[in-house]
Amino acid sequence: MNAINHAATALLINRKWPGVPIIPVFISVQVVEFLWVVLNIAGVEITNTEPVVRAVSDIHLTHMPYSHSVATTALIALAVWWVVSKPFNKPVWGAALSAGVISHIILDLATHVQDIAISPWNDSMKLGLGLYDIPSLALFVETLYGVWCWWVFRGTRKLLALIIVMNLATLSFYSLALNGPEQFFAGRAQLFAAFVGVHIMVALGGVGLLAHSSWRTSGSAKVSSYLLTETR
């Protein structure tokens, strides 16, 4: 899923769990992808491309059982929940951040072709609903999701514009008829991983900048009372 829409998931988390700091939430929704970027640049995980890359369907995430497997994501989420909830005594934060970690693999399962492994020890059976086989539909669904996150968050018009513009900026990746930067990634998987890393940072930075003034540091009286009880 497009980086801006993973970033938009942080808006849902803030709406559900107001008061959790913005930076840890942003890290949680993209920690899986950060791991993917590092492992691809290091050559541990493998991405292949067609000789000519025309759209996202020509980029194949061949081997990524460490960053994107269901089991790895579950272990990361469990570790985040335990560390934040127990040693740091922040159970609400732990729930929010673990939900952020899990959200990434759920969204990727909905969009990816079958390239997500069950676990690092079972790389043969892979999951994915295959939305990227129809790139134009994938872009429409992803943009709709990002806008929905904005609507739930009740963000500003500038934030909405950012989400729409950053989705449309990747149009060439989702259209066989348009040429864009994707053509330069043919046979250059590590360059593509670096590009994704930069794209993630731009998306998180943009959402952070435009959502910061609306970021909920406290909820209703009922929610505030609940948080106070939970952290005692």
TrEMBL record:
Record keyword Transmembrane helix present: yes
Protein name: LexA-binding, inner membrane-associated hydrolase
Keywords of this entry: Membrane, Transmembrane, Transmembrane helix
The keyword Membrane appears for this protein: yes
Domain of life: Bacteria
Transmembrane segments: 21-44, 64-84, 91-110, 130-152, 159-177, 189-211
